[in-house]
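FAQ: What does a ligand-bound record look like?

Like this one, built around 2-acetamido-2-deoxy-beta-D-glucopyranose:
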Amino acid sequence: MIYPIISLIFFHAFRTAAVPALGYSHDHHHESPQSLPSKTWYQDPEHPVHALFRRDALGDGTTYAAVGSPSWSAPYPSSTPNPSALPVEWLNTLNAAVAAGKIPNIPQSSNLPNQNPVYPTGYDPNSPTVCSATEQCVTPGDIWDAPDGVFASSFDDGPTPSTPTLVNFLQSNNKTTTHFMIGVNILNNPTQFLTAFNAGHDIAVHTWTHPYMTTLSNMDLLGQFGWTMQIIHNSTGGRVPKFWRPPYGDSDMRVRAIAKEIFGLTTVIWNHDTEDWAQTAAGPIQAAMSGFLSSPKHPGLVILEHELTDITVNGFIQSYPLIQQNGWNFISLAQSVGNGSSYHNAQSSSSEVTPMGILLANQTTSTSTSSTQSSTSTAASSSSSSGQNLSGAKAQTSSARTLRDNFSPLYTTHSALVLAGVISLCV
Ligand SMILES: *[C@@H]1O[C@H](CO)[C@@H](O)[C@H](O)[C@H]1NC(C)=O
Ligand SMILES: *[C@@H]1O[C@H](CO)[C@@H](O)[C@H](O)[C@H]1NC(C)=O
Ligand SMILES: *[C@@H]1O[C@H](CO)[C@@H](O)[C@H](O)[C@H]1NC(C)=O
Ligand SMILES: *[C@@H]1O[C@H](CO)[C@@H](O)[C@H](O)[C@H]1NC(C)=O
Ligand SMILES: *[C@@H]1O[C@H](CO)[C@@H](O)[C@H](O)[C@H]1NC(C)=O
Ligand SMILES: [Zn+2]
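The answer part, i.e. the structure of the complex:
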């Protein structure tokens, strides 16, 4: 169990030189979350993400492999996704978006180890054309701030062996947080994944293997987003995540567009950084937090924190009383900036998943041609096929609950195997 911790520390040690502290000094325009257009929070039923990650359209037929079981893990890449082994639907959706002019044709960046990505001559990272988040260029629609007075809580890089400590602490305080999870870490730590999900915490996307995303081709981006969406979808009873955070904060107009147009994901950065991953004790983390927590209430706080180790988690736990004492309203980030819903098709990890995957959508659009629909043959399907009626959602409620109850005890032998994969990946 120590291997993943060590490897992840190595992994993050790379960040020292490469990541500018995205401190509070950045001079970003104030597009506060409250003022964003409503389309940011509401997916049109026609958005491709609903076709790519749909539950059975009638809400009762889909079952998923038990999280942690061999059949659950088998379909996923154990390290960097192979761009020539992607589901054809993802490729078709990308090609359609490119053809429709929705994906900016800007070049990939490149970087040396431990350095920020750079673009070819002629592509200014601060220009509207590129708008690199690494350079702290802010595009309307991305999240950097929380609503006034809100501590929008999130943790990156899980699940890890330290995840249960974090979850249990928050649970004892009747709180949840948003976990920006790494796909291979879900694959390697299914027990800890379930600890977070079953406690009602929000699950969001932090890519499959934590690369600098702007350095990747469109096809490689598809794999990084797609597999992470897929494993979350298939491990949460069919939920479709709404948010992603780029590793190292590295995103640009092309990466954002693929996240948004293909996967429906809104990009979330941060406005304060504890640099918790670089600390060797909880004290300095608490000191950094203390400074942020005594700042004015406008804008609200989006603090970069990690559930990497017991040190980073304890840094948060020791800071927690200060959040209350300074009068901040602690809310899971996805709940806060998602207008009360963490997923495209469910309000939270414990609420029902709606048919078609769209929260309160117009049900007349559920005229699916997918084969999953025709394979459905239970009474629930006839009740919701009348359309216009959310009774299908009711049927889905029990379905989702059953799925979650069905999560079986995990295969502990599994982890020993895949941990080796993490080591080779990270070092
Ligand atoms: C956001 O929440 C408010 C309050 O519940 C609601 O009135 C509004 O319609 C919601 N907006 C969207 C886009 O869901
Ligand atoms: C996700 O779950 C669906 C429904 O069970 C299944 O058809 C599909 O193969 C799963 N995908 C992966 C990658 O396991
Ligand atoms: C826990 O939090 C929820 C949501 O904020 C609230 O409705 C509920 O009353 C709280 N329960 C307790 C025991 O404090
Ligand atoms: C649902 O969509 C149909 C077709 O687009 C439209 O005619 C109808 O008014 C919509 N219903 C609601 C409740 O929005
Ligand atoms: C919608 O569902 C409710 C509850 O099942 C039912 O009473 C109502 O008649 C349904 N309405 C339509 C238009 O099907
Ligand atoms: Zn990360």
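Follow-up question: can I read anything off the structure? Yes, for example: Residues 109 and 215 are 5 Å apart (CA to CA).
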